[in-house]
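Homework-ish question, so no full write-ups if that breaks the rules, but can someone show me the predicted structure for this set?
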Amino acid sequence: DTAVSQTPKYLVTQMGNDKSIKCEQNLGHDTMYWYKQDSKKFLKIMFSYNNKELIINETVPNRFSPKSPDKAHLNLHINSLELGDSAVYFCASRGTGASGANVLTFGAGSRLTVL
Amino acid sequence: GESVGLHLPTLSVQEGDNSIINCAYSNSASDYFIWYKQESGKGPQFIIDIRSNMDKRQGQRVTVLLNKTVKHLSLQIAATQPGDSAVYFCAEKGTSGTYKYIFGTGTRLKVLA
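A: Not a homework solution, just the prediction itself:
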């Protein structure tokens, strides 16, 4: 019954490889996000989709390509992996909190290690 | 990119004492703020939020204070417990209609027994 689930939780790969991380939410939310968390715990927004449409695209190398087949799924594909891509990637979805405003609900994260 | 040059501030608090975690936000037009707690190996979890038309909001053992004049947000945790040990983030959302949530650098809270 996990609200936002990401797979895989851990991913270890060689430089130059291509890999994907998948995210699914069962909250019925329209908007989903990808955030990158570096070794200093800094959380940086990468992309956001609202109902399958890209609405936020931060300055991210075009080796990163998000795809949203439907509003419950947002996947992240990374081509030609580099050492600096090593981080924890968090998926989130946006829904209504107790105050009526929109809070982000995060997945547990996918730790990517590039060797 | 990477948070080069930034470090994660740490706040050490004795168990049972009150904790105050501070956050300076960047956009004076931000209209909504959230505090998140991140435990080791987990994703950030919602704690409490506040809209820009309020200056204080209370939850269970937590209070958020907003000072728009100096763009400052604080999270107060009453009677801090070992389970409160985590990294705490503030997040701000820009003006109405934007979907962008910007996170602060985070503060690590250590609860001493």
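Now go work out the reasoning yourself. Hint: The CA atoms of residues 60 and 72 of chain A lie 23 Å apart.
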